[in-house]
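Pasting as-is:
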Amino acid sequence: MDFPLEVLEPCVIVHPWSLESMGGILRAVGGSHSGTLASAVYPAVDKALFFPFTLGKSVTALSFLWLNGAVVSGNIDVGIYTEDGTLLYGLGATAQAGVNTFQFIPLIAPGLTFGPGTFYLAICMNNTTGALMRGLANTAGTLPQVKSSLGAAEMDAAFRLPPTVTLVSLTVDYIPMFGFTTRTLI
């Protein structure tokens, strides 16, 4: 059988639970192994959360996305950082809108082309009233340590996302469903 020389590019969505990030290992240790998500308020005002991901080739991010929870309130900022903590692209303060639904925000054309390498997805909210859908933690309580060992990090007083960051180990048990896509979604 002959295989095609070109492979069609799939619609790629990179998020903390994806295989490009921490997804495979988190599922293996009992975090959200069934794909279950639940609405939960953001863990702390102005706390930025950072989740590493690795790209094997260059991609162009066209939209940011996050999955709102049962209550929307205030503003969210999402971005992509280099491994050394330099902001490549930040969305800026964006009003959270739409209960229990995805919110898609296109990047300014032509998007952000970057990679290959290791990067961070970052998210921050300016309140603890708004909720996002997040993966459920395991019952053993080991998920924060596993996330930190995989490179997940945080930074306080980080709304809006700053141009450079100094990261510390993640202390909260909160992995929201957010990320970027390489395709235009409606």
